[in-house]
Amino acid sequence: MGFAFALIYLWLAQPSAAMVAVGSIVIILGIGIRALASAQLRKNEELATSGPYSYTRNPLYLGSIIIGIGFALAARNLWIWVLMFVFFVIIYMPVIRSEESFLRSTFPNFDEYARQVPRLWPRWSSESLAANFSRELYLKHREYNALIGAALMLAALLIKMTVAHRSAFSAGVR
Question: Number of structural domains, the chain?
Answer without folding.
Answer: 1
